[in-house]
Write a structure and sequence with these properties.
With about 240 residues, the protein is of the alpha/beta class. The protein folds into two domains: about 5-175, Rossmann fold; about 185-230. The chain has helices at about 10-15, 30-40, 55-65, 100-105, 125-135, 170-175, 175-180, 185-205, 215-235; strands at about 20-25, 45-50, 70-75, 90-95, 120-125, 140-150, 150-160.
């Protein structure tokens, strides 16, 4: 993979970036995503943010190699601190991190998010906590994709800023409102695996001398939700 040929996962994230956007890619690594968008004239400006010096230097080299210095800038910064007011960023992409970390990054940067109209997020675990944050901060999910690549399953969430309240049911928060409606084969396979994992965890908790009541109740509730969705999908 490089800036000219993205992985399916990153290409899916990039597809939700609107033409002419001013994008900040947080945790950009080699800056492959913003560089690809710049090469394809999909964005007018981009920031590649990295908190680790090695990846930040990789991003700098990639931008220079491709001659994109007029459109892209790499910044060594923690999370949304990579965004400066003069950037006028309207779109933020965060891909390849856990949901709790993505949520933490978003929570730490309210000032940098002030002008942002679209978030494109690809949490590799903990998607529900990301959806919970989006609803609480008036970002409405407008599209979702689920895909399998190289033995992993990825969910991409696209959300736009709205002025009205946003709420999701427990099932929508866990599965994703669009993915839940679609119930694709990749979605079904993911939740069949997750059902087995949670059932195994419950069996272990039940064997403990002192059962962790709260965790057990949460896991049991999750099993019921998953079983309900898989039963519906089988009809």
């Amino acid at each position: 993979m490089d800036a000219k040929q993205l992985s399916q996962r990153l290409a899916t994230v990039g597809a939700f970036v609107q033409p002419g956007a001013r994008v900040a890619d947080i945790g950009s690594d080699h800056a492959y995503l913003p560089a690809n968008l710049a090469l394809n004239h999909q964005i007018s400006y981009g920031v590649a943010g990295e908190v680790v010096r090695g990846p930040f230097e990789n991003a700098q080299r990639e931008i220079q190699k491709l001659g994109l210095e007029d459109q892209l800038v790499a910044r060594l910064a923690d999370g949304l601190a990579a965004i400066q007011p003069e950037d006028q960023i309207d779109t933020v992409t965060i891909a390849g991190m856990g949901g709790p970390l993505i949520r933490h990054i978003l929570e730490q940067g309210p000032a940098q998010l002030a002008g942002v109209q679209r978030l494109v997020l690809e949490p590799n675990v903990g998607e529900a906590t990301v959806r919970d944050w989006l609803a609480a901060n008036q970002f409405e999910i407008t599209a979702e994709r689920i895909l399998a690549e190289d033995g992993h399953t990825y969910e991409v969430i696209c959300a736009d800023r709205v002025t009205h309240p946003v709420t999701y049911t427990p099932a929508e928060q866990l599965f994703g409102p669009f993915l839940l409606a679609e119930k694709s084969p990749v979605f079904i396979a993911k939740w069949q695996r997750e059902l087995q994992r949670v059932q195994h965890a419950v069996a272990q908790m039940q064997q403990a001398k002192v059962a962790p009541t709260e965790h057990l109740a949460a896991a049991t509730a999750k099993i019921k939700l998953i079983e309900g969705v898989l039963t519906d999908a089988g009809k």
